Every structure is written in structure tokens, then in C-alpha cells.
Amino acid sequence: MPTHLRFFRCSLAAALLILLAGIVPADAQTDPADRARLPDGPLHEQVLNVPGDNGNPVTLEVTLYTPEGTGPFPLAVMNHGATGASAGHRGTRYRFTLSAYYFLSRGYAVALPMMRGFAGSGGSIVHRGCDVAGDGIASARDIRAVIDHLATQPTIDTSRVVVAGQSFGGWNTLAFGTLDHTDVRGLINFSGGLRSSDCAMQDVSLIAAAGYFGAHTAIPSIWFYGDNDSLFPVATWRGMYERYIKAGGRAELVAYGNFMKDAHQLLSYPEGMQIWAPKLDSFLTRIGLPGTLLHPEYVPTPFPPPTHYAAIDDVAAVPVGSDLARDMYRAFLTRPFPRVFVVGSNGGAASFDGGVDPLGRALRACNPQLHCQAYAVDDHVVWVKPAAADAARVSEGPVYRKTVPANATATIDFSYSVNSDCTARSVPRLWLTQRPAHGEARVGQRVDFPRFPPNSPFAACDTVKVAGMALDYTPARGFTGADFLAFEVVDSNSQHRMIRVALTVQ
After folding, report:
1. H/E run at residue 142
2. Is this structure's pTM higher than 0.85?
3. Tell me, what DSSP letter sits at residue 370?
4. Residue 397's pLDDT is what?
5. Is the model's pLDDT at 252 over the cut of 60?
6. Where are the beta strands (DSSP E) in 172-236?
7. Dist. CA 506–CA 478, nearest whole Å
8. Which residues make Cβ contacts (< 8 Å) with residue 495, sequence separation at least 6?
9. pLDDT 10s digits, 28-37
10. pLDDT tens for residues 295-306?
11. Mean pLDDT of all residues in 459-484
């Protein structure tokens, strides 16, 4: 009887609809679906042929990403999942994943090896029935060979390595711990596990194997599991974790409850990053590896919070100027997450869904003269009615005045929150409520120095860079004169500020 392995691999599909005059998709000559699955930052992508385990020779296909700079960079090895894998289905090269872009944003080189039997790697898929520990360790030996090979590259610092994986790759990551690689500082398991059709006791085998891994692993790990995981029920992953800890393994469990329709797809959606990225930052910092945002161009634009302006399915409430735009909104409501619906001052609209950064792509594609604003994201309305927003801002206090240079980008605001030891407490939420009429404003995460006054108890933190949210303004080329913008900030203490800025461009 033929057997097959069932794993999971996330993908970042993307689509867009545009009706708003003045909006054109970025990289219009590139397939939008593929382009939207990639971050804005450069990947410096290489596809390598790397020797696998010396004891069982095979050539492995490995994708390598590096951030800007010359290195040497710490290394993150991100191991793929799979679905419906069999001798006749090898899948495609693993390269579209938010986890890789997260590591790039923290300054890591990222290696994405294809296990034997997958995509362009040689050999056959490894499976041993209920010996799921043996399956994982066989793959782990190939992962070790990839790390050892990359040690020969001058841009890679393989004395600072973290190994991560999702689903099948998460299981292989836990198995890797038993090899006791001296340069690997930590293991990251996203919904790790294994399903094999020729094992009648799959969950029992997983729990027992987790105990074996814990007894033979000294490397610390962090585990991410959700309650509505379609492959691994709560009793199974909790049993795995408890057996791993009882056997002596060092692990932190992040049990995040339900996530969208399937917690197994945590890495498939930018919405999941608010769950796992802060936890991962803390874990990496504790084990002596970088856990601070350095390159915000690799991570998605945060979604604004719900405003409850209208029900998500109230088509009549959408501030657009034509029946065609309302039909677009109806189509938007049928699209999968992540999705955004953007409206402009001319009554037009744009709908983006899928990909790494649908909101950022929508706002960057908009003509600044149209004052585009997100109306809805996923199943929440986030729009602020301009008249109501203006009245609220007037009641909040005076207009701040700032002079900025012509033909240059200026930082209008950098919002941050720090602990007493000057580490970042959290990243505030910041979003525009009124776009400038004569330039472009852009919101994004950044690492920069705080600016506490000299008499502040936190003044010493002004010499330590922290992660925060920045608002930059770029006037239209050749423009001088007056401009105006407004934004809102919610900090780590849930303090909500509405800020108006009158700009003088000269």
C-alpha cells in the first residue's frame, strides 16, 4: 500500500483591484501576485547546491537571503513544511515566508534548505512509519550539513545561529537539538509535528518522540501553538511539550489560543506577527542573539485599530463616489485575509489582498494628492470620518508647527516606549488621519535614538537605539509653502493622542 506524508506549508498569495485614478501597482511589469509576496527590502537571493549529510550523501537546494551590509551576519535557518508530500509530489522551492523576512529585518542572513526529496533537492522523502523521532533526526543531519557548509562563506557568522521551522520543519528543528551543535544558540518551533499515513498511533508517537528530544537536547527553545490548529490538537501539542520538559528539555511555550480559521497558518498572515514577533524578539535577546528591528523595509505596515465607524458589511456606509466602487467593496468582502480596502478624496477606491504588506502597498501606490486612507482591513472598519476627526483633533489641543526642508524627507515624529533598563517596552501604534496635500507621509517601524529631555529619569536611554514607529514627510518636488497633516498614537499604556502638525516647507 502506498504511503504519503501530510505536512503543511504556508504560502503568501496576493491579488489587487484598482479603481482609484492615481493609483497604480508598484512594479507594474512584475507579476503582482509574486511581487506582493516579497518584502520591499533587498533579498540578495542566492540559490545554492549544498552537500547534505556525509553519512548519506545527497545534494540539497538551499535559498540564501542576506540583508543590506557586508556582514558577517548571524544565521537563521528556516525549515519548511509541506503538504500532500509523496514520491510524485516534491513541491516548490521555499522562499515566500514572513518568518524569513522577520529575520532579515533583525539583521540575519537566512538559509531556507529544501529537505531531501523536496523541490530541487536530491534523494527521496524520508519516512519511517511511527518512528517519527528517526524521521526528524535524519532531516536534522542534513540541516547540520547546511550550517557547516555555510560556515565557509565570509558573510555568515556561524558562531551565532538559530534554527527554526514550521510544521514538518518545526519537528525537524526539535530533532536538530539532539545533535548538540555547539554554534546553535536556540530552536524555534512553529506548530511542529509530523503526520504519516502508515502510522496508526501518530499522536502517541509524537508525544513519545518529544520526550526523547527533550532528554537529549541542551539548546533552549520556544514553541508556538494555537488551539484551532487543523493538524495538531491541543492535547497532542500540550502532551509533546509536557513530555519534552519532564525529560529535561528547556522550552518556553507560547499558547496563543485561536488564530483566524486555522492556527497552523500563523506564519501565513501578517496579522500573526503581532503574536509571535515580540515573543521571538525577547527569546533571541535572552539567548544572546539580535532581537531588535534594524531594517523595517522587510516587515508589513501595521493595520490601524478598528474604529467601529460602520459594520464591515454595510456597503452603503463606504465613502466612495460610484456604484462601481461599491461593487468593488462587495468583492472585497469575499476576498481572503489579509485584505485592505482604501478610499481616496476623489471618491475612488482600491482593494488589495494577500502578500506581505497589503496596506503598505496600497498607500504607497496612491497619488499623494488623493489623501488615500484605509477604510477596512480584514473584517474591521478602520476609517475615521474626516469631519469627525477634525473636530476631535481641535478639542485635543493646539496645532504643532514644524519647518522642514524642500526636496528632502524629514521625520515628523518618532514614538517609542522603553523600560527602566532602556530596552524597548513595546512598539506604539501610529497611523495617519489626515494626509498632507503637497507631499507624501509614510508610517513605518524604525530603530532610532529616543529623545527624552535632560531632566527625565530616562535621559540615559537617549544613547541606546530602540524600536518605535516613525512618521516621515516628503514634500512634492519643487514645493515650498504650507502643508498640514494629522496622526494618532496609542502607546504601551493605552494612552491615545491626536496630533496636528502645520508644516512650513522651505
Report:
1. helix 132-150
2. no
3. G
4. 46
5. yes
6. 184-190, 195-196, 221-225
7. 10
8. none
9. 334 556 677 8
10. 888 988 888 888
11. 88
Residue of 51, 79, 60 lying closest to 149 (CA atoms): 51
Domain-wise residue ranges, the chain? 15-24+301-383, 39-289, 389-505
Q: How far apart are CA 298 and CA 285, in angstroms?
A: 20
DSSP class of residue 11 equals -
| Cell triple for 99 | 518568518
Topology, domain 389-505: Immunoglobulin-like (2.60.40)
Rounded to 5 degrees, what angle do the CA atoms 414, 415, 418 make?
125
Residue corresponding to grid cell 542566492: 46
- The answer to whether 80 and 144 have CB atoms below 8 angstroms apart is no
- Asked whether the beta carbons of 270 and 234 are under 8 A apart, the reply is no
The whole-chain average pLDDT of the chain stands at: 86
Nearest to 466 by CA among 275, 273, 291: 291
pLDDT digits over 118-155, tens only?
999 999 887 788 999 999 999 999 999 999 999 999 99
Q: Backbone phi, then psi, for 316, in 5-degree steps? A: -65, -25
- How far apart, in Å, are the Cα atoms of 41 and each of 339, 352, 453, 473? 21, 20, 34, 20
Cell of 471: 512618521
Cα-based angle 111, 142, 145 (whole degrees, multiple of 5): 70
3-state helix, strand, coil in the chain (%, to 5): 25, 30, 45
Residue 265 has pLDDT above 80, yes or no: yes
Overall average pLDDT of the 370-385 stretch: 87
Q: What digits encode the pLDDT tens for the residues 54-87? A: 999 999 999 999 998 899 999 999 999 976 655 5
Residue 97 and residue 79 in contact, taking contact as beta carbons nearer than 8 Å:
no
Residue type, 383: W
Architecture of domain 39-289: 3-Layer(aba) Sandwich (3.40)
Task: Please name the residue ranges forming H helices in 36-88.
Answer: none
Decide if 383 contacts 489 (C-beta within 8 A).
no
Amino acid at 80: H
CA–CA separation, 484 and 495 (whole Å):
23
